[in-house]
Design a protein that fits this description.
Elements: H1 3-33, E1 37-47, H2 53-63, E2 67-72, E3 78-85, H3 86-98, E4 105-116, E5 125-127
Parallel strand pairs: 2-5
Antiparallel strand pairs: 1-3, 1-4, 2-3
The chain binds 2-acetamido-2-deoxy-beta-D-glucopyranose.
């Protein structure tokens, strides 16, 4: 191999290495940004009052580090809001749709006003009434 070819090869290799370092740096950064915050309002229908639904909702929300609130309505539903990391909010939505408290029987859960947010509006997950 002649000298010119050797140094050419070296340049290509170091450029490649720099690119790799740059890209892996970016990937880590993107991962950090992926902890996107969202907020969503919910309402759960079915046998959800008198079955410790709010208490279990609070427990699940705390487990997922979500903030917000829930309460009974006069229409025999439970409404509320959750805010937090998008993936955790998705888990909470699934739980509200399918699991609930042991004695509950969920007909459906509705979600409204789902939005990306820049900061959490609540200090905890509270039961309002
Ligand atoms: C949760 O936050 C609310 C304010 O939104 C406050 O009134 C309540 O005392 C807090 N509860 C706990 C257990 O810290």
């Amino acid at each position: 191999m002649n000298a010119a070819l050797k140094s050419g090869l070296l340049v290509v290799l170091s450029a490649g290495l720099c690119g790799f370092v740059f890209l892996s740096g970016r990937k880590t950064e993107e991962k950090g940004n992926m902890a996107k915050l969202v907020g969503v309002d919910f309402e759960v229908f079915g046998r959800v009052q008198g079955v410790f639904f709010r208490k279990y909702t609070q427990k699940k929300a705390e487990e997922l580090s979500l903030k917000g609130w829930c309460m009974n309505t006069d229409q025999s539903t439970v409404t509320g809001r959750v805010e937090g990391e998008k993936s955790k909010v998705e888990m909470m939505k699934d739980w509200l749709r399918k699991t609930g408290s042991p004695q509950s029987a969920i007909d459906k859960a509705e979600f409204k006003n789902e939005q990306e947010i820049t900061e959490i509006s609540f200090p905890n997950f509270s039961i309002r009434r």
